[in-house]
Amino acid sequence: MSAQDIADRAGLSVTLVRRVLRTPAHATTAPDIARTSADAILGIPLPHRRNPDAPGAPGLTDSAEASWRLADLARAGWPATTLAQHLDVNPRTVAEVRDKRPRLRRDLALRIRRLHRDPISLDPAGYGIPATDSARTRAAATRRTPATAA
Question: Which residues pair with 61 in a beta bridge?
């Protein structure tokens, strides 16, 4: 469970849970926490085992697959703003996952996989994306992709 999951189930702030979970450095003492907070955290029942690929499954996953899927959509001419609308996230999130974010939420990774698999990956012009936006996106994707030796 993540700190956010624990905080949601315990009814505490995520900051407090993170402070409790942080291991103290050598020569320092563990922070005191109130008994009610400790009882709230320790009294959380473990969640039932779920299918990790189920929509809405909590947790983080590696972003490598989602990154290349988003880069593939960019090479096809899909702007980050359009992808973000379909994924129900901020365009900045799409750019970060595509370029540098090491991990992302599992449910977002699943939405990216579905988006890449769905017919949206065919032709942006058929969905009302202006040709200039598609061309600009393709050119940026080409600059981001490292050149391979022939």
Answer: 104
How many residues appear in the chain? 150
Region label for 58, one of left (φ > 0), alpha (ψ between -120 and 50) or beta (otherwise): beta
pLDDT in tens, 96-139: 998 888 888 888 888 998 888 876 657 777 777 888 888 888 88
DSSP string, 35-72: HHHHHHHHTPPPPPP--TTSTT--SEEESHHHHHHHHH
Residue 60 backbone dihedrals phi, psi, to 5 degrees? -115, 155
What pTM did the predictor assign?
0.56
Structure tokens given for 100: 């540098």
